[in-house]
Design brief:
With 269 residues, the chain is mainly alpha-helical. Helix content is 49%, strand content 7%. The chain has 12 helices and 4 strands. The strands form 2 sheets. Strands 1-2 form a two-stranded parallel ribbon. α12 links the parallel β3 and β4. α1 packs antiparallel against α6 and α3 packs antiparallel against α6. The chain starts with a helix and ends with a strand.
Length: 269
């Protein structure tokens, strides 16, 4: 226990994300955390854009006058950006600190889920799930093994932990939990601007090698629909439990829902 507490103490010390979340209002749970991260990352992006726009043509006194007018800008103050000759360097340093602290925060979450939540986790199953005739595949956006533990005997399904799986035996370097944001850039800028790519979910999934089993399932679903005789198309049922359906997971959800031979049922409370 002491080892875990000591690790947590180090992870939370001067963590910029924890300090940020302490000073904002979280109303809708997990969605708000992801949106706050996205907001901060996009503000860093905006600071770089402002800096580039100001100095693109004029590097003289006029540029500095424009920068000085930004001294009262809440965004600059909130990010702790200094109005100096090297804003780009300041942003890079702040970005690296935010990324390091995000990884520290993710490890905090892993310890919390692995040590505390799993040990006092839910024991009752949901009738809505129990009454389903069969489940052969599970795409879990959670970090814990709740489905395996509660329903594994009844439904020995293939499970894809798309956001990784909490494991107390891992550390900040081997942790494979994904906690990031959706892609907010448009068009060609998606491929050209990779300054903040490490904060984005799709990149973290690749970098942390969480696996994409669901991609194989999508291929099977589409293959079943690609037949000459449409009367023989195999139909699939998709059941969604406990998911906010927020845009941050939109790329994955679209792959599954937007198929002619998929009937989607959403359970909600």
């Amino acid at each position: 226990m002491k080892k875990i507490v000591d690790e947590l103490d180090l992870l939370i010390e001067h963590n910029t994300w924890l300090e940020h979340f302490m000073n904002v209002q979280i109303e809708n749970g997990w969605i708000d955390f992801e949106r706050e991260i996205s907001k901060i990352v996009q503000e860093f992006e905006e600071v770089l854009k402002i800096n580039n726009d100001i100095f693109k043509e004029d590097k003289g006194e006029n540029s500095w006058n424009q920068l000085l007018t930004l001294r009262q800008n809440n965004m600059f103050r909130r990010l702790g950006i200094e109005l100096s000759e090297n804003i780009e360097k300041d942003v890079k340093e702040k970005k690296e600190k935010r990324l390091k602290d995000l990884n520290r925060l993710i490890r905090c979450l892993e310890i919390y889920l692995s040590y505390y939540i799993i040990n006092v986790g839910a024991e009752k199953t949901l009738p809505d799930i129990d009454q389903l005739p069969s489940i052969d595949k599970v795409l879990s956006f959670n970090y814990t093994n709740t489905f395996e533990r509660l329903y594994g005997n009844r439904f020995p399904a293939e499970i894809d932990y798309i956001h990784g799986k909490a494991d107390i035996s891992k550390n900040i370097h081997t942790n494979n939990m994904v906690l990031g944001i959706d892609e907010y850039l448009k068009g060609e800028e998606r491929n050209e601007n990779i300054e903040f790519i490490a904060f984005k979910k799709f990149y973290q999934r690749i970098h942390k090698e969480t696996g994409c089993l669901y991609k194989n399932w999508v291929t099977e679903i589409r293959a079943d629909n690609d037949v000459l005789n449409k009367e023989n198309v195999k139909q699939h049922k998709l059941f969604i439990f406990g998911h906010s359906l927020d845009i941050t997971d939109g790329d994955v959800l679209r792959d599954l829902i937007l198929n002619d031979n998929v009937q989607t049922v959403i359970f909600y409370k």
